[in-house]
Amino acid sequence: xxxxxxxxxxxxxxTLGALLRRLQPDxxxxxxxxxxxxxxxxSDPWNNAGTGHAGLCELFYTPERxxxxxxxxxxxxxxxxxxxxxxxWAHALENGLxxxxxxxxxxxxxxxxxxxxxxxxxxRRRHRALADNPLFAGTDFITDFGEFAARLxxxxxxxxxxVPVGLDWASHGTDVDFGALTxxxxxxxxxxxxxxxFGHEVxxxxxxSDGRWRLGLVDLRTGETRRILAKFVFIGAGGATLGLLxxxxxxxxxxxxxxxxxxxxxxxxxxxLTSAHRAKVYGLPVPGAPxxxxxxxxARRVKGASWLLFGPFAAWSPKFLKHGRATDLPRSIxxxxxxxxxxxxxxxxxxxxxxxxxxxxxxGTRVQALREFLPDAExxxxxxxxxxxxxxVIRGGQLDFGTTIVHxxxxxxxxxxGASPGASTAVPAMLEVLERCFAGRFGxxxxxxxxxxxxxxxxxxxxxxxFKQVWEWGSQQLQLD
Length: 481
Ligand SMILES: Cc1cc2nc3c(=O)[nH]c(=O)nc-3n(C[C@H](O)[C@H](O)[C@H](O)COP(=O)(O)OP(=O)(O)OC[C@H]3O[C@@H](n4cnc5c(N)ncnc54)[C@H](O)[C@@H]3O)c2cc1C
Prior knowledge:
FAD/NAD-bd_sf, alpha+beta, FAD/NAD(P)-binding domain, 481 residues, 10-stranded mixed β-sheet, FAD, L-malate dehydrogenase (quinone) activity, binds flavin-adenine dinucleotide
């Protein structure tokens, strides 16, 4: 019997476990993970791009409206969410929940990059639209080719200086090893009494007559089965969350389907390139492509080594996890989501066409796409790595590229679907789970919560002084000065 069962040891469960440990120290917590270690799926550093998404550079968060103005709503929302995450990380370091910040976090400029007259004009208008918001202050808009070459020499080499280029340069971005962070947070939970069952897969979720959930587990090494009774269950199983919510039979998941999109990155560890390119540079998404596949060239730090990563290229597999089963997609289609899933398939013909075009890509054509960023890129210097699976939510016949929290009316079960903005917004997402599922207790947690996230409940865009305070405190704790 446990108070809280967390299914999956990815960044979401790890964050929720650590938050609960602080807010309700006497609650018993049990984590169940089918793999033999934490962060083996999307939260692994090579299964995602490691961008601390704050809306600084991602052009798909700032679409152009038909009248030519720029809609900054989403960029501001993502930045506000990232500020919540950043404060919790600062609190976690200050209070010894996790170790040295350089184990998982590195400062790196976040840069938007475009070329061509029209795109440079769009970027200028985007820069102006964001400039008044304190969360986006201090970015540099650059069109001078000499300055471009000084900041991004590898991207300037071999490029025609006659083609206009534009950069929006935010020097205060971050590269995050979400895998290392997940392991540290799980470690904190274990040091404070949480039980973790690695190599155990949750196969069933049934309701007892007293309202508790009975989890049926299988030890994947021995085949032995066991049961856990839990008062509250969080399904943080990444792509597998949908199937587990369906198995629990809760009405809130009816009508929801899932569509898996995989990814492939090009990776390079050559020192002459990693030392010449020290930024995360995001370009414009290809028309018809999902926003999550907008190309970017990222400087990464993983386990003490420097890398460059480019992509993601969309890939396809019916699996809902990288280590999943080919039956995942067919098994997720039920009577209640069939019409919606078929409707999305018909509506998203442009996306299907894009995915098919991506599947035809071979190494050479992927490097060709990279040359938009690095004109001198050589095939042999770059190797392909398979990224994690994202399962996009289908609802009402529409594909949703965001994140959805599904929870029962009585708050005894919640699950997180979707993977964008993803790990960067794990803290606000998990606080939302707590607010919805522990409505009766949430108010009593506020004093502790405001120690962890001092700006909780405040829109920092409207409070520049408070933003300055929490930013400086966070930068000091996270050693990002
Ligand atoms: C290509 C790509 C690029 C991305 N880039 C970024 C980025 O730059 N920045 C960012 O913030 N986010 C990014 N994301 C999103 C981010 O990686 C995810 O949102 C995040 O890692 C999801 O964490 P999670 O804990 O929900 O799931 P996961 O990390 O996938 O963890 C789920 C865990 O549940 C376990 N599990 C599944 N089923 C069961 C079961 N039945 N029983 C027990 N255990 C089970 C799995 O083994 C796994 O360990 C990216 C994702 C992808 C795919």
